[in-house]
Write a structure and sequence with these properties.
Elements (H helix, E strand, L loop, with lengths): L1 H17 L14 E11 L9 E2 L4 E6 L1 E3 L4 E3 L3 E12 L4 E9 L2 E12 L6 E11 L4 E8 L7 E13 L1
Antiparallel strand pairs: 1-3, 1-11, 2-10, 4-5, 5-10, 6-9, 6-11, 7-8, 7-10
């Protein structure tokens, strides 16, 4: 048994030293990301039906190659990013809310989620995942809309995470 192990080890070393295989490319570690979040931040004021409002009261999270200022993530490296967001909220019995990523003040329709709150004072949640290209200086916010009335969502928890996938 010992001699078989020695033979296998010898053959393995021979293959490693004489291999003309193509090298395997290992992707570099993630070097650009940003996060902002909030916990029990209270109500976001809805001024009118079907109007997106920026969510405020957020806190700076982990940042590398992305900066944070006034409830906004600011892109410092252009590229394609993966975006993830979730929020939980209540208020507005029998009211539908929409959550979206804001890019330079405009919502991105493909970065979107919706949730209707029941009549029992439930806490509901919504989340979205998407991919988008950003330029240096793009401002990212989290926006909410009430499609039924002007009830304000009382936000229990929220976060936004962006990770650069490529340049």
């Amino acid at each position: 048994m010992k001699s078989i192990k020695i033979i296998i080890l010898g053959l393995s070393l021979l293959l490693l030293t004489s291999c003309t295989c193509k090298s395997v490319s290992i992707p570099p570690p993630v070097s650009t990301y940003g996060e902002m979040w909030g916990l029990e931040i209270g109500e976001t004021i809805i001024t009118s039906i079907n109007t997106y409002e920026n969510i405020t009261g957020l806190t700076e999270g982990e940042l590398k190659g992305v900066t944070y200022s006034n409830d906004t993530l600011i892109i410092q490296k252009a590229g394609t990013y993966s975006i993830n967001s979730q929020f939980s909220f209540n208020d507005g019995d029998n009211t539908e809310y929409h959550l979206s990523l804001g890019k330079n003040g405009n919502r991105l329709k493909h970065c979107h989620a919706q949730r209707k709150i029941g009549t029992g004072g439930d806490v509901g949640s919504a989340s979205f995942t998407c991919i988008d290209m950003f330029d240096v200086g793009d401002n990212l916010t989290i926006m909410v809309e009430n499609v039924d009335n002007t009830n304000n969502p009382d936000i229990q928890s929220i976060n936004l995470n962006v990770v650069r996938l490529s340049s």
